[in-house]
Amino acid sequence: MSTELPIRKIIHIDMDAFYASVAQLDDPSLRDKAIAVGGNEQRGVVTAASYEARKFGVKSAMSSVLAKRNCPHLIFVKPNFERYREISKRIREIFLEYTELVEPLSLDEAYLDVTENKKGNPSASLLAREIRKEIKEKTGLNASAGISINKFIAKVASDINKPNGQKTVGPEEVEEFLEVLDIRKFHGVGKVTAEKMYKLGIFTGKDLKQKSREYLIEKFGKNGTHYFNVVRGVHLSAVKPNRIRKSVGAERTFNENISSEIFMLERLENIAGEIEKRLGKNNIAGKTITLKIKYSDFTQQTRSKTINHYIANKDLILEIAKELLYQEKMRNSVRLLGISLSNLNTDKANKKPIEEKEIEVQLKFEF
């Protein structure tokens, strides 16, 4: 039995080096300079890097010390999340001029479904160009875009002509595009799965496509059907304007390593207070509290506890975080602590799974 794939025109907009670009926008002396947002020369972690810094191998989640070693002239700047949120809101207002179907992924990227749009323009590629131009005019920042038949392909495409470019993968190009794609780029293929696929001789989409549905189910369980479909351009996830939040959290990297549990509790109290504000702002509560600990040797540990009722109160969050902190002895001095709350009252855990069907892709519409 076969059914027709829903016809969609999806744009993925991704701001170029957003945090770093905002810093360069606000401080002209930083323009065309190698800068890193977050951390400092002695310690911390890079949150984002300008393209000038990326040329030297500086990237997000890299230790500041290593970043400085790779790029001796690197300039560190402090993050300004209020400013990021302000600009992100302005960008989202631009998106809504084109369609109500906007799914934000973070402050600097979003999916737009422009199959039917407010401009009455049948070309998703031209719409993406207009949106990027308007973002530049109203914020001074560059954005890149990917355009295709589903969210997965659009997101991959947005990386291809970065920075300040766009890539359209039209219906007739989907098959070829996916066949040459590195298996690590496929939606749902993480590091562990990629390693397993390598051992099975699966390195590209073409390799994956040669495997039968039965073979993939045998090797990867229920995910096998997903891999079978996605390499054929079948990815049914719609653009969801009210994207369900999975967790709320905050973390802090310290200027000096902490070995005293008293000091750790002080930091955790501040973090719990920040989470309480974020939960209250969005009217969210959760049942699972996770404590994140990063030690001075950069090893990381998480400890979680699920309770039987929803909480959003700072004191209750701190009480459980404290319990998790004392759960076992510290391995080393600590450089980062974080708390997150998940299993939220926004979750739809009982949502019925989509029935898997054989799908015939119909790819005949203007891009």
UniProtKB/TrEMBL annotation:
Broad class of the protein's primary localization: cytoplasm
InterPro entries, from UniProt? DNA/RNA_pol_sf, DNA_pol_Y-fam_lit_finger_sf, DNA_pol_Y-fam_little_finger, DNA_polymerase-Y, DNApol_IV, PolY_HhH_motif, Rev_trsase/Diguanyl_cyclase, UmuC
According to the entry, every stretch annotated as the UmuC domain falls at 10-190
Top-level taxon of origin: Bacteria
Its keywords, alphabetically, are: Cytoplasm, DNA damage, DNA repair, DNA replication, DNA-binding, DNA-directed DNA polymerase, Magnesium, Metal-binding, Mutator protein, Nucleotidyltransferase, Transferase
Q: Where in the cell is it found?
A: Cytoplasm
**Coiled-coil zones:** none
PROSITE patterns named among the record's database cross-references: UMUC
Which GO BP terms sit in this record? DNA repair; DNA-templated DNA replication; error-prone translesion synthesis; SOS response
- Cofactor(s) the protein needs: Mg(2+)
* GO function terms (MF aspect): damaged DNA binding; DNA-directed DNA polymerase activity; magnesium ion binding
Q: Which reaction is recorded as catalysed by this protein? A: DNA(n) + a 2'-deoxyribonucleoside 5'-triphosphate = DNA(n+1) + diphosphate
Q: Show which residues form the site (Substrate discrimination).
A: Y19
- Binding-site residues, Mg(2+): D14, D108
Q: Which EC number applies?
A: 2.7.7.7
List cellular component terms (GO): cytosol
Q: What class of enzyme is it?
A: transferase
Cofactor stoichiometry and binding? Binds 2 magnesium ions per subunit.
Residues of the active site are: E109
Its function, per the record, reads: Poorly processive, error-prone DNA polymerase involved in untargeted mutagenesis. Copies undamaged DNA at stalled replication forks, which arise in vivo from mismatched or misaligned primer ends. These misaligned primers can be extended by PolIV. Exhibits no 3'-5' exonuclease (proofreading) activity. May be involved in translesional synthesis, in conjunction with the beta clamp from PolIII.
Family membership noted in the UniProt record: Belongs to the DNA polymerase type-Y family.
**Subunit structure as annotated in this protein's UniProt entry:** Monomer.
Q: Which NCBIfam families match?
A: PRK02406.1 (NF002677), PRK14133.1 (NF010731)
> What protein does this entry describe?
DNA polymerase IV
Biological classification of the source: Bacteria, Pseudomonadati, Bacteroidota, Flavobacteriia, Flavobacteriales
